């Protein structure tokens, strides 16, 4: 008998739904599903689980297969996860560590979700997958699908940064660029997956996206010798990283592996702040809102740019369960934070991560994060993915004076300028 059994349950009404095929939405209320783990009689103890992690010969996120809802390691070719937790020392009075998710195969944390989604998809006989994307989920799907000889289709808005689009195309995915927004792309991708042989990887709607992202929380706790940080800062758009990280820490706590849960700080861009709005409008005594407040995003942080977050309910629930909070930052703060991260720590991330760092600075300044706190910032994606946004945030280049001597032919001559 396996140590754990799994089933789907609605994130909102908790209606259970049977295990087996991939399920996407609650058949009662239409909300996203979560995956529930139930310990069987032969379930290992917390110590046995940790020993299994330590003795695992597998690299990256598959070290945690004992807690993943898939039978066995699926023959991953790329190393997903196993990313470093970089100790940045004291930063403005807090002890800062950055989880460097840019080291994943396609350069973002999304690979954890895709790796698990495709492992499950392959196990139920899917030949390919489709996703909507602001860029990174698509690059991730294209990358991991290529490594498994699976077909990938990515639906992107026309605003997708060129580097991300190039990445998706380089891996050979079928790209559908649409005239509309990410929100439109989301619905189109869902319709395109209307076939049991095509898996829909859409963030949040596919419950395994959240499940894969849990492994990032497992790694953070393991790197800290199963202590948890006081705060984890999570750049937030759809809210799926937020709900995944919360679920990972809640798992470890429920299994008795850790003795606490970190508080989560969701960092949103000020024009893409649906979760922050709904968070502040609903205090502890109120039921969480069923549908998100729609906003009109226009931010340099393209990965956070969503009108109606697709894992909204689970994200708000994650904030409640972790006594978390939301911080909203503007593009100017994101630009300054991007430079500081690169120039103080040698870590160049895309603007979404910089939004997280800006939120941390605001949290420290307001006293929400106390001095001396242990803080982990999720470095969710590489700066190489959105270089165009850096041009907008960097100081203008200093142009050298004309080095040509009179009569020079204007061709490039190597040498020292006078
Ligand atoms: C690099 C990066 N950071 C943060 C996010 C936000 O994650 P979520 O949409 O799950 O809130 C994304 C989503 O695309 C991303 O690609
Ligand atoms: Zn439901």
Automatic annotation (TrEMBL):
Cofactor: pyridoxal 5'-phosphate
InterPro entries: Ser/Thr_Dehydratase, TrpB-like_PALP, TrpB-like_PALP_sf
Pfam families, A to Z: PALP
One Gene Ontology molecular-function label: threonine synthase activity
GO biological process, one term: L-threonine catabolic process
Enzyme superclass (EC): lyase
SUPFAM superfamilies assigned to the protein according to its UniProt record, in alphabetical order: Tryptophan synthase beta subunit-like PLP-dependent enzymes (SSF53686)
Entry keyword set: Lyase, Pyridoxal phosphate
Tryptophan synthase beta chain-like PALP domain ranges (all copies): 79-381
EC number: 4.2.3.1
Coiled coil in keyword set: no
Signal peptide extent: none
Descriptive protein name: Threonine synthase
